Fold these 4 entries.
Entry 1:
Amino acid sequence: MAIHYPTLADQWDDDNCFQTPSALHGWLTGYLATGGRLTPEQWLQEAADYLEIDAITDGLRPLLTTFYADTEAALRAEDMAYGVLLPDDEEADIDEQVECLAQWSKGFLDGFGASGRVAGRPDKDVIEVLGDLDAFSQVSLEDADRNDPENAQLLNELAEHARVAALTIFYAFNAPTKPTGGDTTLH
């Protein structure tokens, strides 16, 4: 993403946002993954509702506009470089990073449901990854040694699993765009 977690977190604090940038990123990812799309004004209203703020400030508006565009572009990118938005080691300790992953996962499930686009029973791969994300939404760090390098490794593995889960659902509900123009017949 062009916008980094610290920039978002600072603005979130200034605007007294109830949810974290990770939670909103999860929500938007879940919404977009189902094939849902929002106009700029719809997005700003959904973001305000999810962040539990009365209005989008002048400081928050451009960040949220970029946030939407970057998230959608990353999900569509052929290089599959989409990533879960979490604070890094310099911004947060392992407890906060794990909590943000749980919030991202819950946000994803909230956005998935909010889209209202999934009718019937999704295929088994989608059901499986939704179950994983539900489990991730409840994850916490119980190890007494917060500096244990295994905690950071586990966090990275869970974040990668969440990233792949998001892409799995995105590809299940979003047909790839067909190239335009010219004859694509192979001889």
Note: The helical segments are 5-14, 21-33, 40-51, 60-76, 94-114, 124-136, 149-173.
Entry 2:
Amino acid sequence: MVTPFADLDADPAIRGFMHLPVESNGSTLVLTHGAGSNCQARLLVEMSSALALSGFTVLRFDLPFRSARPQGPPRPGSASQDREGLRRAVSVMRGKTRRCLFLGGHSYGGRQSTMLLVEEPELVEGLLLLSYPLHPPRKPDELRTSHFPKLRKPTFFVHGTRDPFGTIAEMQSALKLIPAQHAIFEVESAGHDLLSKKTAGDLPAQIVLAFQSFLDKTVASRMIAGGDG
């Protein structure tokens, strides 16, 4: 079931859609969009539906920069407000979560999620990042990885083999900076938007299955280690 959602009790306001599973697994995921999109993006809608089918409660919502204006990229200096929006969305969903709460997003939304989790490591239990924007297209030296060594929670990356924001080899090299458990799910022939005629129609379901497997292995390894790792 998908229902409109709004929490206007504080600033920034949270507006989006809630995906409720038929049989809940007790976990929740907050999901948001990239710099040129909104929470109605096809990728977010299909990913949220696939996650809900697997038992997750999902909130997909618009970041503050998108709530402020319907089009255009984030303005310089707005990133901190967007991270505050992520923080608020997580706070709203924490009360609806019996087990684990995850944070994720596409491109810019995923990048801001990683930066927020470095600021507040205990905010959520892990990250789901769709097409992390490793660097601007054609500018491989402008890496957005300075905070990676401070990521302390399990992080699952989904990345297309034709993404101009970073090759698979570049991503694999960058991920070595992350001390927490991490993995990358490669999508053959996909660009930055991941979904295209060249990618499989059941790609969202494949991503969710791989994400769940990653979480299962993470839990198992923590049990063996006897702690958070």
Note: Residues 128 and 156 are 5 Å apart (CA to CA).
Entry 3:
Amino acid sequence: MPETIWPMALGEYSKDVENVAEVVLKTWPLVRRDFPWRHSGDPWRILLAEILLIQTKAEMVMKIYDRLVALFPTPCALTGVDTEQLEEHLKPLGLYRQRSQRLLRMAEYLRRVHDCKVPCDYEMLRRIPGVGDYVAAAVYIVACGGSAPLLDANIARILSRTVLGVDPPGRYMTDGTLGRLAGLLKWDRKLAYAFIDFAAAFCTSRRPRCNACPLRSHCKYGSRYV
């Protein structure tokens, strides 16, 4: 049974965070989006999707995701691939040279260390070259059924605005307070996708839809600035 990875929690905010998560989950059926990787529980397919989604809109990734999965159904299928060929597949997303190198390093490591399988262990996932805390947590939650503090730009924005009343810092991923707030929740794939879709629908980085937001009565940011 996958374990739950928790940081030290900020107990005084636990009820606020739970209320936010409850509203986000209740709202999800109204704002839910559909992407091909969300129909998979395969750790490699989820890992591939998360790497492609870095600094990229999901709608763009959707245009090439199925083709990449068909071409590279396992990490081993990527090892030894021609770099220019891979870059050509990744060009529609931008940052294609960086993505190509990251994917190739990951594939070689998984071949060498894990027999071409993506491990369902949080710490092992974090050791894969090019996999940071968020990607490791996302794969662990979505593909492996575990729970770990999940903090991307969308989740950081919702938690920071609702609970703390401010926009998240630019380097939200290293912010200890936000990491601990994320650790107050028991994450599963439903909650993860609900937060991401809620942010896309209401809590956008620019011009958030605070007046229409179901979280407004729970949100210190919305009540202060709107």
Note: The chain has a mean pLDDT of 92.
Entry 4:
Amino acid sequence: MKAHLRYSYRLTAAKYFFTASILFTASCGTTLYRVKPPAALASLPANSPTVNLGTISFRAAPLLTDEETQELFESNLLLAGLLPVRVEIVHNGGDAVDLKKVRFHLHDAAGTQWQTLSVKKAIARILKANGVFAYNPNSRKQFEKEVRAYELDLKSPLAQSERRRHGIVFFLSPKKEAVASPHGLKMTIDGLPQPAVLELN
């Protein structure tokens, strides 16, 4: 009887290990979510808020619906308390512009500031909100790499030859709650010779 139980236990353990191995292997080299490549992203709407600072201009548009974030990241970022804002920087002529000191700040109608998040912290919020706790580390790295491709590059100067630069800036809602129809959003841009304000909605 004991021998039979030991055999049954070994058989169950072997089945569990085999199943786990298949799941682990299947997740290797894949991503947690299927992220749409930035190159496939449509242009900003023509009526997007714009501010002209002479040498460069800024345009921006927040992703305010579940459908928009699902289409890009196969995940509901608003549920995670995240508001992605698409930003476009246009070089209007002249010397290259150093963007290293540029910072974005977001306030709502109540004057409450939203926190700017790095891609790494934004991903942590997404996984927590979706209850994803067990995953292959390689899958997370791949997901982070694909989302990071959307991050607005502020490290390298913007030259006239580049003309335009696109990217997303992630903001966290004041109480870390799900984003639901925020009103009076204003994005302030500083770190340049003159500050700029964009009224997003």
Note: The longest helix spans residues 2-27.
